[in-house]
Design brief:
The protein is α+β, with helices and mostly antiparallel strands. Helices cover 29% and strands 38% of the residues. 8% of the residues are buried.
Length: 73
């Protein structure tokens, strides 16, 4: 497994990070937020208002992975 992601998809504060594990892909989903100290952090928790972007990121990740798998055949 590479230390670098294969691909990232970002919509608003939501990011889907796609990892290539020797042709088997996995996806991490996270929401970015800023702390009181003005530092950016990530969490795996989502608010109701994040869910549409999370769903779109998941769908786009699935499409990207499917294309990778189709071209590797």
């Amino acid at each position: 497994m590479s230390n670098q992601p294969a691909h990232k998809i970002k919509l608003g504060l939501i990011t889907a990070t796609i990892w290539d594990n020797d042709g088997s892909y996995s996806v991490d989903m996270a929401r970015s937020y800023k702390t009181d100290q003005k530092e950016w952090k990530n969490t795996s928790g989502f608010f109701h208002s994040d869910l549409l972007n999370a769903a779109k990121c998941a769908e786009r990740a699935e499409i990207w992975i499917s294309r990778q798998l189709a071209t590797s055949k």
